[in-house]
Amino acid sequence: MALPDWALQLGYEGLDRGLIPDFIVRIAIRALLRQRLREIDHGSLEANNAAKMAWIKSVKQRTCIADVPEKSNEQHYEVSTKFILSTLGPHAKYSACLFPTGNESLEEAEILMLESYCAKAQLQDGQDVLDLGCGWGSLSLYLAQKYPKSRITGLSNSSTQKTHIDATAKLRNLTNLNIITADINTYDFPTTSRFDRIISIEMFEHMKNYQILLRKVSTWLKPGINSDSESLLFIHIFCHRSTPYHFEDTEDQDGDQSNWMAQNFFSGGTMPSHDLLLYFQDDLTLVQSWYLSGTHYSKTLEAWLKLQDQNAETGLLELQADAKAKGQDPTEGVKAFYRFRVFYMASSELFNFNGGQEWGIGHYLFKRA
Ligand SMILES: C[S@@+](CC[C@H](N)C(=O)[O-])C[C@H]1O[C@@H](n2cnc3c(N)ncnc32)[C@H](O)[C@@H]1O
């Protein structure tokens, strides 16, 4: 049964003003997660498999790679850099970190995950590497420092991310790094730019047609001369254990604008299933895949929430100034602050559900087909 409009409205206003205690927010989130699991379960393995095949067919029929990329910039990637960085670890990694014992600091967990990419993607000094969806430079800056003879290219659709990475690279005297601001829907590299490794960390969840995307990305890999010099694509996504679904930024059957996550943080977003990319091997072949428990991501998000709270005073001022600079009322900045808190909490609860075995992280290594 859906809540009446007035109750939803009251709840959302309370969330926007930080008036609802966290433990109540978390209880509500867990109830919504159970509802989501009921919605994606069609009752039998046969029915669930048929639904997955239909879902995959429908995304292959879409004409563009990603929907509404400008919305993800509004919702995350061009939000005040100072604010976002005040909630992240020192490497500004805006994706899951690795907590093998659970006792690591956020910085240690950032480095452990970054190092795991170097090992799994078989990185070596001297390679041409593309960091696709480079965020605020967590991987690009790390690789530029670790592999001084490599040429690192980062690509994202956010101009404020480029400003931050370029400034940090200058401070660290890194000259082997080039950041490009472009939308993957339309961008193509000149044929003179080809890569030994392409690494993409949590960008694919903003995508829809993985067939066109992987075709395009496959053309950016250098043709290998032999198996020792094979070019590779490494992908990190968050995922559901079995079922892909869309984050729908639309009204539900009763006309309620109830999909808070899609509206505020994930318009045009996708929850891939762990096996989703295996159905898109037209131009690339899977070498290996890994599943990592969602608890790693939950711990990451709890660390971000803690930092956001520790830096609340400056974070609130920063977001109010950002709203004003964008021609909005400063109260929009206050709303954004509390919405980020709920976003971190909701995502942490999702990845912690069923001990991290329901939603988690997928790693994949592909070579050219
Ligand atoms: C969740 S962030 C991950 C950032 C970074 N890889 C990290 O791990 O810290 C997703 C990244 O994908 C980029 N992105 C999303 N949609 C895009 C698009 N249509 N074209 C290019 N980049 C996009 C965002 O700008 C952002 O940099």
UniProtKB/TrEMBL annotation:
<comment type="similarity">
    <text>Belongs to the CFA/CMAS family.</text>
</comment>
<keyword id="KW-0489">Methyltransferase</keyword>
<dbReference type="Pfam" id="PF02353">
    <property type="entry name" value="CMAS"/>
</dbReference>
<dbReference type="GO" id="GO:0008168">
    <property type="term" value="F:methyltransferase activity"/>
</dbReference>
<protein>
    <submittedName>
        <fullName>S-adenosyl-L-methionine-dependent methyltransferase</fullName>
    </submittedName>
</protein>
<keyword id="KW-0808">Transferase</keyword>
<dbReference type="InterPro" id="IPR029063">
    <property type="entry name" value="SAM-dependent_MTases_sf"/>
</dbReference>
<dbReference type="GO" id="GO:0032259">
    <property type="term" value="P:methylation"/>
</dbReference>
